[in-house]
Every structure is written in C-alpha cells, then in structure tokens.
Amino acid sequence: MRNFDLAPLYRATVGFDQLADMMDRVFTNEVNQPSYPPYNIEKTAENSYRITVAVAGFAAADLGVEVKDRELVVSARKADDETPRTYLHRGIATRAFERKFHLADHVKVTGATHADGMLHIDLVREIPEALKPRRIEIANGDTVEAKAIETAEA
User: Fold this and answer.
1) What is the pLDDT of residue 27?
2) Which of 15-24, 46-55, 70-79 shows the lowest per-residue confidence on average (mean pLDDT)?
3) What are the residue ranges of helices labelled H in 29-140?
4) Cα 5 from Cα 101, distance rounded (Å)
5) Is 146's pLDDT higher than 60?
6) Residue 79's pLDDT band (boundaries 50, 70, 90)?
7) How far apart are CA 63 and CA 21, in angstroms?
8) Per-residue model confidence (pLDDT) at position 106
9) Per-domain boundaries in the chain
10) pLDDT value at 72 more than 80
C-alpha cells in the first residue's frame, strides 16, 4: 500500500521527472517480489557490470533480452515438448518468466551470452564527454588585460 502522494513534486519541479518516476516505481512495487529466476549483479570494473540469471533448462532460442525505455527485460518461454513425460519428482522449474531491471542513465547493454545454464548480460556505463570533469585553465590577470588592450587597438 502506498502512503505517499508525489503529485506536489511534479507540480513544483522541472526536469526531475526521472527522479519522481523512480520514487513512484519504488513505492508502488509489491512487497512480495518474485524470486524466480535467481540472479546476480556484479561489478566487473569501474564502469562495467554483469547480470547473471540462472536459466537451467532453457535453450538460447527460448530466451529473450530486450532494452526499451531504460529498462532491461529478460524473458523466457519454453517451447512445448510434445513427448509426454511422467515425473516422479519435478524440481527443475522451466516455467515462463519475465524479469525487469531498471538501468541508470548512460548504462548500455554490450552483449549477452548463454553457457552452462547461465545467462550473462554485460553492461557498461558510458559517461558523455560533456558530463566528465574537465580542468579549466586559470590565466594571469596580466594576460587578460593584454588581450583586452589588443582587441581595443585593432
């Protein structure tokens, strides 16, 4: 149950829509999040990440990885097996699933691999040059006056 109304935040701010949407998404999520399939998120380098999803029983053709609107969607649908089987114990879940991961700004998916029942999705954060810190050269007061004098004489 959600107790917060974010409408005043939308009315009083400009350009913070993504922050408000993220807060709204956090507050509206259900308490009981699905735990299937299990996954890991690891940081492999300063700006590189890897999501590993356990997808035992699924072939690469059964899996789907899609990015849209800064959201990574991993889904799987097992093709129906036409051979009838009688299980004495069925502990391997091969039910269809859809798992969503919200991506931060400037995070891009660079690739996905499927091996040994694990789906590995590699991500990298690419910060644009305009957002990187840059050093500003400090000039002497004498050079500024000299440039001003030169332009006035010309």
Assistant:
1) 67
2) 15-24
3) none
4) 24
5) no
6) confident
7) 29
8) 87
9) 1-33, 37-81+89-153
10) yes
CB count in 10 Å sphere of residue 53: 24
**Mean pLDDT across the stretch 54-70?**
90
- Residue 126 amino acid letter: E
Using CA atoms, how far apart are residues 136 and 99, in angstroms rounded to an integer? 45
Helix (H, G, I), strand (E, B) or coil at 74: strand
What CATH topology corresponds to 37-81+89-153? Immunoglobulin-like (2.60.40)
User: Which two structure tokens, joined as six digits, stand for 44?
Assistant: 């492999």
Tokens representing residue 114 in the block: 């499927």
Contacts of 97 (CB under 8 A, 6+ apart): 34, 36, 37, 75, 76
Distance CA 34, CA 148 (A): 67
Provide the total of helices (H) and of strands (E) in the chain, helices listed first.
3, 7
Q: What is the mean pLDDT of the chain?
A: 79
Burial group, residue 62, by CB count within 10 angstroms (0-12, 13-18, 19+): middle
Check residue 93 and give its pLDDT: 74
| Contact criterion met (CB below 8 Å) for 42 and 48 | no
Q: Which residues pair with 10 in a beta bridge?
A: none
Q: Element (H or E) spanning 152, and its range?
A: helix 141-153
